Amino acid sequence: MKILRHEEFSKGCKAACNGPYNGKWSKTMIGYGHEDDHFALELTYNYGEKDYTLGNDFQYITLRSNSHIQDNIKAHNYPTETIITDVDLTETFIYTPSGYRFQLIEEEGEGDPIRSITLHVSNLADSLKYWKGILGMAVLETKRYVNGDQIASLSFESLTHHPQASLNLLETFSNAGKPINHSTGAGRITFSCPSSQLTQIQEAITNSSYKILTPLTSLETPSKPTVQVIILSDPDEYEICFV
């Protein structure tokens, strides 16, 4: 990955982009290519905050592996883990210094190596009513594992006609029906869309029983044009930003 841009802010974001903190902070966008056509990670740093506690919400980012990545993992001695998730199916994970996980998959292909992001949900059916029924994402695949876990893969790709990473919603048998714990290390999922659609999204949520955390607002960003954003909350209180 490479640094795409870095920005410094003297006070907290009015849309809580840096979490519930009011002081000086920065964000660094990283990825494998330009943000217009690649998945990007936003790393936020709040000056003075020394530690964050991870919950059970964010699961992992799936990354197409290659020999260069494998060599880097060995060179830096990053911890890895192999888990048996189904019959004859094993998954390999690498842990970042902050405890977040990347799932590494052996897959041929070109384009963005980031394939998907997986979130833990308490009730998959309820989540699909929101992400598919309200937000309009297409369900690409659903699967139930032998241990009772079930997962659904969704995307806006059919609407944008542009290859993109998918969103995976995972309901685990052991946690079915229990609240998701976001703790202090939670972030948010952001989607880019034409500005003309933001009002439509706000109207759809307003006419439903779901939450709007930040109504459509404008944010000033250093070295960039002012952007409009709306922040939503799904049934498990995941923060979703459309910009």
Give a quick rundown of the structure.
The chain is mainly beta and 243 residues long. The chain folds into three domains: 1-51, 2,3-Dihydroxybiphenyl 1,2-Dioxygenase, domain 1 (Roll); 53-184, 2,3-Dihydroxybiphenyl 1,2-Dioxygenase, domain 1 (Roll); 187-243, 2,3-Dihydroxybiphenyl 1,2-Dioxygenase, domain 1.
Blueprint (SSEs and pairs):
Blueprint: E1 2-9, E2 25-31, E3 40-46, E4 58-64, H1 67-76, E5 80-86, E6 89-95, E7 101-105, E8 114-120, H2 124-134, E9 138-144, E10 150-155, H3 157-160, E11 166-171, E12 188-191, H4 196-206, E13 211-221, E14 224-233, E15 239-242
Parallel strand pairs: 4-7, 8-11, 12-15
Antiparallel strand pairs: 1-2, 2-3, 4-8, 5-6, 6-7, 9-10, 10-11, 13-14, 14-15
Write up what this structure looks like.
- By secondary structure, the protein is mainly beta.
- It has three domains: 1-51, 2,3-Dihydroxybiphenyl 1,2-Dioxygenase, domain 1, CATH 3.10.180; 53-184, 2,3-Dihydroxybiphenyl 1,2-Dioxygenase, domain 1; 187-243, 2,3-Dihydroxybiphenyl 1,2-Dioxygenase, domain 1 (Roll), CATH 3.10.180.10.
- It contains four helices and 15 strands.
- It has helices at residues 67-76, 124-134, 157-160, 196-206; strands at 2-9, 25-31, 40-46, 58-64, 80-86, 89-95, 101-105, 114-120, 138-144, 150-155, 166-171, 188-191, 211-221, 224-233, 239-242.
- It has an eight-stranded mixed sheet with strand order 5-6-7-4-8-11-10-9, covered by helices on one side.
- The longest helix is centred in the middle third of the chain and has 11 residues, at 124-134.
- The two termini are 23 Å apart.
